[in-house]
């Protein structure tokens, strides 16, 4: 009778209503002292991108767009974004997108107080194999590296391992 009901357009499944608004994930960094040091700001943005990447991988989703809000010490605010055609959860690609958004948006000489990074335009992570073996091999290596970094971060904390660009935002420990 199931096929008979389907053929007649009868469906007893619950209706999935789309959510209002677009889901996003976001992270922010407020500087201890307002700054316009490019190295420190780039490191903070890279750290935010790494946190977003880990959240995306933990949620088994990927994102196409990275947005960056820069809040200045005088209360001014700049919003910029960078989008890519393919979705990703890679720290490295998200960092590149975030730094592109930073480059587009950081035009004032006023010191920065806060950076807010957000990711949206989500898609569930695909399990489909790539048709291009060279690209797939590089992706496999990067996926293994990110998986290892995530394991270390979960065990020892986010600051246990990070790419060199994030070094300026890490506290000095000896």
Structural notes for this entry:
The protein is of the alpha+beta class. The protein is built from four helices and four strands. The chain has helices spanning 2-7, 38-58, 91-105, 133-156; strands spanning 25-35, 61-72, 77-88, 112-124. The protein has a four-stranded antiparallel β-sheet. A hairpin with a 4-residue loop joins strand 2 (61-72) and strand 3 (77-88). The N and C termini lie far apart (71 Å). 21% of the residues are buried.
Q: How would you sum up this structure in a few lines?
A:
The chain has 174 residues and is of the alpha+beta class. It contains 4 helices and 4 strands.
Give the arrangement of secondary structure elements.
Blueprint (H helix, E strand, L loop, with lengths): L1 H6 L17 E11 L2 H21 L2 E12 L4 E12 L2 H15 L6 E13 L8 H24 L18
Antiparallel strand pairs: 1-4, 2-3, 2-4
- Averaging pLDDT over every residue, what do you get? 80
The unreliable regions are 169-174
Can you count the beta strands?
4
Percent helix range: 25-40%
Q: Assess the beta-strand content as a share of residues.
A: 25-35%
Question: Number of helical runs?
Answer: 4
Summary keywords:
four-stranded antiparallel beta sheet, 4 strands, alpha+beta, 4 helices, 174 residues
């Amino acid at each position: 009778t199931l096929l008979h009901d389907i053929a007649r357009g009868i469906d007893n499944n619950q209706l999935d209503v789309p959510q209002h608004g677009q889901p996003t994930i976001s992270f922010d960094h407020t500087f201890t002292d307002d700054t316009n040091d490019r190295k420190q700001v780039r490191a903070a943005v890279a750290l935010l991108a790494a946190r977003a990447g880990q959240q995306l991988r933990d949620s088994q989703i990927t994102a196409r767009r990275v947005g960056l809000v820069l809040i200045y010490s005088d209360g001014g605010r700049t919003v910029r974004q960078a989008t890519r055609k393919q979705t990703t959860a890679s720290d490295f690609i998200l960092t590149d997108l975030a730094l592109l958004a930073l480059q587009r948006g950081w035009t004032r000489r006023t010191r920065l107080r806060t950076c807010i990074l957000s990711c949206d335009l989500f898609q569930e992570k695909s399990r489909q194999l790539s048709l291009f073996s060279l690209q797939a091999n590089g992706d496999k290596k990067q996926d293994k590296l990110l998986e290892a970094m995530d394991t270390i971060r979960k065990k020892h904390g986010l600051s246990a391992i990070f790419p060199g660009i994030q070094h300026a935002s890490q506290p000095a420990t000896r």
